[in-house]
């Protein structure tokens, strides 16, 4: 405990005045002549006992009144802790007082019914009051006071050291500038309200204070500066950013900055022994936030809580500028049926609407698409009835998608306090014509597979251009002209062929290998319709293929593919096309036993006891290789050949191997954006055009396989072009907010305790509460109000005792 005016403790000496007055001014006994001396003596003994008890209580109360007046004038303060009674302590307190009062009045009513003489009743009443008056405080001391003292002591046993109020401050002003801080209250966003409070508090800092200003989207440690005007400029410059680190990480960075600065300050005191060096600053962190859950991460809460517990010298103040009952309608998702569609194809989109609080029951979403001049043109709108807290989906469709790139957006009609999620963006690419080379020993072997690919192209599902090449001419083929190469039952490719195919795939090509002919190992005379496993198992071939061939097997009992629990992209595409279940039910009579290599991934297996691999993939450089251990040309091997299933399977496998359909064009803010580059990459520099009409250039390394773009913090649609038109390159993509950013649920006190530690922070809703909590943390808990309140209670009790307990007894 500390006292603001300790000299006034001498005033406690005035508590002796009631004792002196009691001794000097006590009433003198009067002599009365009365014959019944025995009755007088008995009455005198009873009155003396009653008056002694009464005078003692009154004396103690009057001494306590004077002591509390003197003690209160000293302005005592205690270390910061929760000095108020908690709910169980209140219940115990009221129960004991109620029990005491009930006992007193109950016993008095019982005694009155006994018709005792009045003197005897008054004497016993005085004794009852004294007994209950002593028992109740004793019980309260044991049942309330002792647990209360232990609880408060536990909170204040390791307080931060007391400091003077006029010491300079080393403060970190940390701003949550996530999208939810753009929520408008009146004419201000939450961020603007936070900036106003920060500027006001900055002007109140002591002379010599140093301030560091940072925000949640920054990654570096904030530097401290003595120039408070520069700090004010940095506060004003904070803007809403759509991506950033969690506040857990930024708080840890601020703590680390405080610790490093404290070590630097103490290390400069070279003339002072190390054990006597002291910090010259108060250490404080001010976090301006709306307390939305999405700005925090639960998985790192224990780390932050432990670090805060270790650094007691750093005070943490949360300035809550959030809305306790927010309302919002936002676009939570924009989902495309495919991010790449063939030219002239149809694109389907689903838009998700999320709501918070009480909003209009009907909402309208407008749909815009970029025209030939690049400007957005309204293409339609949809209305939907919504309920608070329930996400609704709206469906849109774009027929005959044309051009290499289409960008558009969805807008909610009207306005709400959080405007940043009222618009959703998308980008869709049209697939270029994919050139496919099909290689087999003769055209009849390639017939079924080439027919499936040609059908897909003629039906305008995907634009393919196929070409058949005999195996004998593969060595001379220009593989760079093709996006995908399929090898169907090749008899015995030589080392040169495998080397050329390896270089082709490594540069980004796609290779599909089908095994649908018997092994030549068991034949006395190998034919061109058989496969030589020795050729496939050579070193040059194994640099490329995902498995080593063992033997071909023809089963009398058909098997099927086990496609359960697979998360492979090809199978997901087949599932979206509605044929995965049919593919899994397909009967397979013949296949090859293979041994997958270490870098390969088994996509699907046959459901027999041995679980023979059916589809195996291997990544080589920038390209993909897919090996299928059953046939695509022989009806005796499986039911795939000649079925409608073969068309969808051929389409999806070709698209997957070409990697064109797997190119992403839609991302969330904070994702790393990756765009493909041509195999013979000649692009050296690009210009990135951003939604806020800014642009930046970026160099591309000569060995880069993909264009990687980072530090994109604005939502909207982007365009990428080659710098100075040196190469014909044009790309684009869109960034949207994650759905979680529309979630405005706030952290509860128990959540903050879990994140930061109970009693390790204060929450402040306005500048006045902030100043009050700062004074409490720096100087301790002010006890003046408590002492004055106790003084009023004791004084009232003294008056009650004097007026009621000591009223003149009726004759």
Structure notes:
The chain has 811 residues and is an alpha/beta fold. Helices cover 34% and strands 26% of the residues. The protein has an 8-stranded mixed beta sheet with strand order 18-17-19-20-26-25-24-22, with helices on both faces. A 5-stranded parallel beta sheet has the order 6-3-7-8-34, with helices on both faces. A hairpin with a 5-residue loop joins β29 and β30 (695-699). α2 packs antiparallel against α18, α5 (190-202) runs antiparallel to α6 and α7 packs parallel to α8. It is elongated and about 130 Å long. 32% of the residues are buried. Residues 160-164 have low confidence and may be disordered.
Q: Number of DSSP helices?
A: 18
In total, the number of strands is 35
For the record, give the distance between the C-alpha atoms at the N and C termini, rounded to a whole number.
Answer: 52 Å
Strand arrangement in the largest pleated sheet: 18-17-19-20-26-25-24-22
Could you estimate the helical fraction of the residues in percent? 25-40%
Mean pLDDT: 83
Secondary-structure content class:
alpha/beta
Radius of gyration: 42 Å
Percent strand equals 25-35%
The coarse overall form would be elongated
Regions with pLDDT < 50 over 5+ consecutive residues? Answer: 160-164
Main beta sheet strand tally, sense and closure: 8 strands, mixed
């Amino acid at each position: 405990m500390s006292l603001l005016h300790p000299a006034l403790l001498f005033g406690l000496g005035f508590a002796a005045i009631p004792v002196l007055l009691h001794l000097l001014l006590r009433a003198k006994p009067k002599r009365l002549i009365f014959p019944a001396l025995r009755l007088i003596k008995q009455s005198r003994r009873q009155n003396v006992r009653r008056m002694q008890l009464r005078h003692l209580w009154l004396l103690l109360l009057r001494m306590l009144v004077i002591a509390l007046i003197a003690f209160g004038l000293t302005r005592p303060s205690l270390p910061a802790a929760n000095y108020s009674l908690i709910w169980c302590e209140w219940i115990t307190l009221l129960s004991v007082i109620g029990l005491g009062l009930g006992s007193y009045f109950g016993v008095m009513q019982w005694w009155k019914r006994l018709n005792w003489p009045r003197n005897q009743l008054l004497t016993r009443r005085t004794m009852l009051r004294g007994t209950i008056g002593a028992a109740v405080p004793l019980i309260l001391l044991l049942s309330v006071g002792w647990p209360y003292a232990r609880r408060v002591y536990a909170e204040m046993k390791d307080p931060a050291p007391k400091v003077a109020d006029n010491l300079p401050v080393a403060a970190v002003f940390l701003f949550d500038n996530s999208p939810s801080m753009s929520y408008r209250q009146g004419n201000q966003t939450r961020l603007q309200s936070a900036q106003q409070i920060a500027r006001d508090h900055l002007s109140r800092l002591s002379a010599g204070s140093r301030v560091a200003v940072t925000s949640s989207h920054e990654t570096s440690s904030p530097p401290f500066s003595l120039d408070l005007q520069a700090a004010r400029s940095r506060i004003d410059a904070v803007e809403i950013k759509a991506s950033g680190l969690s506040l857990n990480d930024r708080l840890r960075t601020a703590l680390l900055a405080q610790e490093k600065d404290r070590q630097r300050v103490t290390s400069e005191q070279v003339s002072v022994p190390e054990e006597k060096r002291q910090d010259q600053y108060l250490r404080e962190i001010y976090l301006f936030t709306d307390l939305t859950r999405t700005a925090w991460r639960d998985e790192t809460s224990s780390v932050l809580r432990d670090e805060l517990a270790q650094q007691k010298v750093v005070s943490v103040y949360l300035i809550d500028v959030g809305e306790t009952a927010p309302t919002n309608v936002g676009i939570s998702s924009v989902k495309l049926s495919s991010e790449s569609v063939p030219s002239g194809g149809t694109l389907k989109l689903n838009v998700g609407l999320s709501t918070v609080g009480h909003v209009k029951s009907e909402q309208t979403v407008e749909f815009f698409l970029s025209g030939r001049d690049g400007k957005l043109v309204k293409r339609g709108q949809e209305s939907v009835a919504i309920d608070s807290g329930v996400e609704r989906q709206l469906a849109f469709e774009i027929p005959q998608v044309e051009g290499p790139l289409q960008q558009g957006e969805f807008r909610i009609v009207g306005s709400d306090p959080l405007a940043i999620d009222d618009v959703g963006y998308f980008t869709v690419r049209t697939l270029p014509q994919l050139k496919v080379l099909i290689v087999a020993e003769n055209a009849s072997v390639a017939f079924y597979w080439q027919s499936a690919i040609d059908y897909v192209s003629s039906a305008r599902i995907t634009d393919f251009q196929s070409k058949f090449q005999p195996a004998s001419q593969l060595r001379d083929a220009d593989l760079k002209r093709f996006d995908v190469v399929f090898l169907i039952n090749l008899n015995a490719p030589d080392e040169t062929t495998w080397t050329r195919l390896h270089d082709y795939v490594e540069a980004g090509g796609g290779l599909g290998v089908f095994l649908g002919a018997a092994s030549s190992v068991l034949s006395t005379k190998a034919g061109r319709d058989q496969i030589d496993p020795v050729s496939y198992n050579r070193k040059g071939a194994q640099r490329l293929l995902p498995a080593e061939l063992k033997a071909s097997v023809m089963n009398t009992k058909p098997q099927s593919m086990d496609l359960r629990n697979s998360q492979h992209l090809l199978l997901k595409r087949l599932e979206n096309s509605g044929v995965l279940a049919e593919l899994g039910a397909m009967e397979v009579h013949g296949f090859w036993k293979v041994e997958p290599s270490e870098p390969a991934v088994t996509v699907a297996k046959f459901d027999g006891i041995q679980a023979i691999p059916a589809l195996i993939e291997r990544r080589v450089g920038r390209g993909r290789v897919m090996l299928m251990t059953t046939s695509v040309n022989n009806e005796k091997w499986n039911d795939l050949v000649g079925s409608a299933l073969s068309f969808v399977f051929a389409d999806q496998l070709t698209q997957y191997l070409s990697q064109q359909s797997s190119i992403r064009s839609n991302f969330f803010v904070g994702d790393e954006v990756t765009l493909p580059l041509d195999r013979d990459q000649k692009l050296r520099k690009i210009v990135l055009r951003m939604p806020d009409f800014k642009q930046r250039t970026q160099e591309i390394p000569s060995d880069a396989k993909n264009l990687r773009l980072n530090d994109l913090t604005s939502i909207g649609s982007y365009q990428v072009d080659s710098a100075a038109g040196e190469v014909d390159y044009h790309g684009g993509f869109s960034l949207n907010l994650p759905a979680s950013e529309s979630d405005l649920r706030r952290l509860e006190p128990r959540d903050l305790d879990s994140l930061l530690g109970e009693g390790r922070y204060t929450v402040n809703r306005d500048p006045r509460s902030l100043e009050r909590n700062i004074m409490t943390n720096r100087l301790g808990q002010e006890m003046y109000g408590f002492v004055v309140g106790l003084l009023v209670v004791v004084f009232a009790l003294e008056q009650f005792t004097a007026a009621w307990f000591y009223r003149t007894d009726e004759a």
